[in-house]
Amino acid sequence: MNKSERLNDMMIYLNNMSYFNLKDLTDRYGISKSTAIRDIQSLEAIGMPIFSEYGRNGRYGILKNRLLSPIIFTMDEVYAIYFSTLTLKGFQTTPFDLDLQKLKEKFESCISEKNRLNLEKMETVFSFSSSKQVNDCIFLKDILYSAINGNTSDIMYRRSDKDYKYTVQFLNVSTSFGQ
After folding, report:
1. pTM here?
2. Cα 115 from chain centroid?
């Protein structure tokens, strides 16, 4: 693991910790104490609010009420995320309030011109084959959050002039064959 990958992983690892010791870093990353100290200094330099407590039981701490530092992705991870978002094109409805074209533009604005051109080339030669979803589901977002929260839902519908009502609990939401 090179230094930039290690620093990115350290930001994620340390983000939810209040305190840590050098030993935590040396054990996790297999690095020396002096390398761990240099890495801590690098994290401070890019804005991570780290402080130290001196003494026999000294340790490092991370200030509360901080913002999460930006996440750094490798280009392979960027490509994977990009093409994952493109799979949403086949859906008539998603549970997310988003405009796919704006999302694509935002994504492309965050990468270099060279990588943007690579993405465009990949998009012309690489595609996912899937059935296009033709049905619009206005309740998809409600169904998703009901499943996440473990809530029950009352489903009512009319068929052949007869009303039906069921209380259901959604366990998961899936799609296949365009349905």
Report:
1. 0.44
2. 20
